[in-house]
Amino acid sequence: MSQPGMPDGMTGSVDAEDVLATAAGWRDAGEKVALATVVETWGSSPRPAGSRMAVTAGGRMAGSVSGGCIEGAVAEAAQQTLATGAPQLLDFGISDDRAWEVGLACGGKLKVFLERLG
Amino acid sequence: MTPELLARLREAQAAKRPVALATRLTDGAQFLLPDDPASDARPDGAPGNGAPAALLAAARAAIDEDAARNVEVEGAAWFIHPHNPPLRLLVVGAVHIAQALVPMALQLGFAVTVIDPRRAFATEERFGRVTMIQEWPDDAMAALSPDSRTAVVTLTHDPKLDDPALDLALRSAAFYIGALGSRRTAEKRRGRLRELGHDDESMARIRGPVGLNIAAVTAPEIALSIIAEIVAVRRGAALGQPKTGPGGAGAAKAEAAGGAAPGRPGGAAGQPADRAGAPA
């Protein structure tokens, strides 16, 4: 098995960090895992579409979907997806009330798709 | 994502097979595309796994452009996420600068291969987690067959090792070819490569002196200038434009080579004439 966080095989052009490998490892170890993927960005969002983050029910995180601005909010929303199995499409951005709440200070806007693994 | 789909995605990754993951954003339905080369080649053009044909076309385009995209298919929004094999970096010469360059390239997501027939140099102890090939560069390079997602850097200073590698690199679609060496060394090398049948236009693809001009002195600084130049070329930055090299490879020639280079259209032209990269 590949080491989490190390490039291995193929990681896409977006990131050297192999979030899928980490997520698969967590799942194999019996953890409940949700995957968050940036699917669309506008303005100065720091991470391109395709950026991924894995979150466990226990609160472990790997990868990122922003420059640290919204990871907390995504991890929180992930708990609901982990509980129900229903995917979510989250909107973050300056036009959104949550912008203040989550502090997307970059002024960017992005959509994040959340799904449960398994 | 189902565990089965994740497993198939990771299998494709391990096999270095380009695939795209298509996700319907309304309900999370997913397809891996192309799924199975045999079934995807059905006469009706429809993917074997039941995905709409338009989705397969979008997946192929996303893979080709190596960029994620959003498409609407049959009234639903889909996210197409390409997973291409990593860019490759082939380093000829397991030398001190290579020791600094390799970890930087790994950090940037490159699959790195170090080629050096000299056994004392190409040791795992010196390089760790990369592919080491202890063969002559011409044999090794021929087997690795550089493509448009491959960068080649020669670092040995030894014509016996560097020249065959550069010869093969120039005959390939490698998106970046860099050769360590001073301007004088580079000029001598041009003479030798010319004898191997490469003209000025072809040789303009070689970055030498290698690396962006950051006045690098130490091995890690030189490595940094090289990896930064590779990224600049890859991303189509103005800094990645071919430099005006020694021996009269003038601006027009450099521009022509830039236009023919794979990748994105470059930014501004007009680099300073004297852009000595890493001294060597």
Automatic annotation (TrEMBL), chain A:
Residues 26-93 form the XdhC- CoxI domain. It comes from the Bacteria. It holds the Pfam family XdhC_CoxI. PANTHER family: ALDEHYDE OXIDOREDUCTASE MOLYBDENUM COFACTOR ASSEMBLY PROTEIN, MOLYBDENUM COFACTOR INSERTION CHAPERONE PAOD. This is XdhC family protein. It comes from Roseomonas acroporae.
